[in-house]
Amino acid sequence: MIETEVIESKSNVIMKRDGFSFEKLDNKCYYTTFDIKNKNLNLTNIINFDLIKVLYDLNPDIYDLVEIEKINETEANLIIVLKHLFKDLGIPQKYSYLNIKLHKTQYFFKFESKPIKRTKPSQVPISAEVVDFDHIETIGEFITNSHVIVKNYTYIGSVTNTMSYFDKIAASITYKIISRVINFISNYKKMS
């Protein structure tokens, strides 16, 4: 069983909509949960690094660049460059360079993402700043082969007392990304 340390008693719900929940558990952890259902698809077969690519391909208005370098079936490096969404506010463009490991059984999966801090990829604009987080855990529990409950924990690198409107912006962007993926998978018809 996969264990994740969470301090749920300090939870602050930022957004709940259509089965999606985005919460701030404490000053260092954001928690997102949602579920995906599709009776026409065995979801256990699609949980892999290709699904991460789909997540970003469905959101070209949010990302400038997404590159996945598969090391093997259970590990990959990922470069993400966000669109310069808040340029007018003087906030620098953001990017992440991650090492992701996948642990999977027939009952659950876990993506563990940690930043690669040793270098800035050449594909990233010089003025872009790295998103400051310690690690991300995305955990899924298969209720059935066609239903999975997903929980995501994002641990921030330094303690932050962000203003509530920044939390709401993060929640709105995350909701937009996740809802597109849920709709894509939920409406996918397996080709015969």
Descriptive overview:
This protein has 192 residues and is an alpha+beta fold. It has one domain: Alpha-D-Glucose-1,6-Bisphosphate, Chain A, domain 4 (2-Layer Sandwich). The chain is 17% helix and 43% strand. It is built from two helices and ten strands. Strands 1, 2, 3, 4, 5, 6, 7, 8, 9 and 10 form a ten-stranded mixed beta sheet that branches. Strand 6 and strand 7 form a beta hairpin. The longest helix is centred in the last third of the chain and has 23 residues, at 164-186. It starts with 11 loop residues before the first strand and ends in a 6-residue tail after the last helix. Residues 1-9 have low confidence and may be disordered.
Assign the CATH architecture: 2-Layer Sandwich
Round the Cα radius of gyration to an integer and report it.
17 Å
CATH class group: Alpha Beta
What about the largest sheet?
Answer: 10 strands, mixed
* First and last CA, distance: 35 Å
Please name the fourth-level CATH homologous superfamily: START domain
Percent strand: 35-45%
Mean pLDDT: 87
Q: Give the total of beta strands.
A: 10
Approximate shape: globular
N-to-C series of helices and strands: EEEHEEEEEEEH
pLDDT below 50 for ≥5 consecutive residues: which ranges? 1-9
- The name of the CATH topology is Alpha-D-Glucose-1,6-Bisphosphate, Chain A, domain 4
Q: Structural class of the secondary structure composition? A: alpha+beta
How many separate structural domains? 1
Assembly state: single chain
> How much helicity do the residues have?
10-25%
Annotation field: number of helices: 2
